[in-house]
Amino acid sequence: MLLVFAVLAGAASESETQTCQTATDMNDSTRAALDTAARHYFDLAAKGDIAGLRQNSIPGVAANFAGIETAVKDNQAAFAGAQVTARSPFLLQAGGTAPIARAEFFCGVFGKSGQTANSAIVVLNDLPPGNYGIVIQDVASAKGAYTLSLVLQQQGSDWKLGGFYAKPAQAAGHDGNWFVERARGFKTKSQMHNAWFYYQEARDLLAPLPFMSTQATDKLYDESQDLQPPDLPANGSVVDLTAGTKTYKLTSWFPLGVGDDLDVVVKYQAADISNNNQTYQENLTVIRALVAK
């Protein structure tokens, strides 16, 4: 499960600067401080120490801690006793005196074709000025592979918790690269629905943060864009699904790893869901129509 808890809010300012330093750019003390803080917060999460995490969070997060508390409880069993390896951190510096409506950080070295193996692009909306650290931790657990990505904000000499993103690194027992290979296989066979869903799942598994792109995720995006079937909703569009005498408005359709299964989640517009039995029957009707199609 992916848990997102962002703390970024405020008025917009378009004229401020944004810079990003990779591990090789930042000084040793800053890198050590980021790594130490991230490890400390992982240890608190592994112990289920909700109070300790809240105490070490920035004020906006501490005041609205329910999302992180749920994420910690959901992942504590996987994190307890796990082996953790931190990837090279990023230091984001947002200048100015007012929040930035759309802050874009280009981290690392870029080539003529765009991103390279160690680069990243981070996009954050309504970002207040300050120094931020991003630390991605690979977690080797008895329950499988996970990533825990933390957004930290510098306050004085401390790095406080500003975001907590925990997710499995596998779905249905397979990692992102496995889904890439299967997606390409479906593409070769012109099985575009399968290819599209497997590309989506691969990108989700290979992207530790929803607001970060890498060379790997950019490549998958480019590979898959011309594959999207026209009967799937995209970019806010709605697609009609006829079932008997009724037409349903589908708003989204995406894969989701659940335990050892890869499921497909379909969302559609409904005028009223107050009657549980009727809603259940409507769901069954949509499912049967999709399977038949």
- Name the poorly predicted regions: 1-15
Structural class: alpha+beta
| CATH architectural group of the largest domain | Roll
Q: What's the number of structural domains?
A: 3
Question: Could you tell me the number of beta strands?
Answer: 16
Number of helices: 8
What is the CATH class designation of the largest domain? Alpha Beta
Per the CATH scheme, the topology name of the largest domain is: Nuclear Transport Factor 2, Chain: A
Determine Rg (CA atoms, Å): 21 Å
Major β-sheet annotation: 6 strands, antiparallel
Compute the separation of the termini in Å: 29 Å
Secondary-structure element string: EHHHHEEEEEEEEEEEHHEHEEEH
Mean pLDDT metric: 91
Characterization of the model:
The chain has 293 residues and is of the alpha+beta class. It has 3 domains: 18-168, Roll (Nuclear Transport Factor 2, Chain: A), CATH 3.10.450; 174-227, no CATH class; 239-292, no CATH class. Helices cover 34% and strands 34% of the residues. The chain contains 8 helices and 16 strands. The protein has helices at residues 28-47, 50-55, 59-62, 66-79, 176-188, 192-206, 215-224, 276-292; strands at 18-21, 83-86, 90-94, 100-107, 110-111, 114-115, 120-127, 130-141, 144-155, 158-168, 170-171, 174-175, 212-213, 239-243, 246-258, 261-268. The strands form 5 sheets. Strands 1, 2, 3, 8, 9 and 10 form a 6-stranded antiparallel beta sheet that branches. Helix 1 (28-47) packs across helix 4, helix 5 (176-188) runs antiparallel to helix 6 and helix 6 (192-206) runs antiparallel to helix 7. The longest helix is centred in the first third of the chain and has 20 residues, at 28-47.
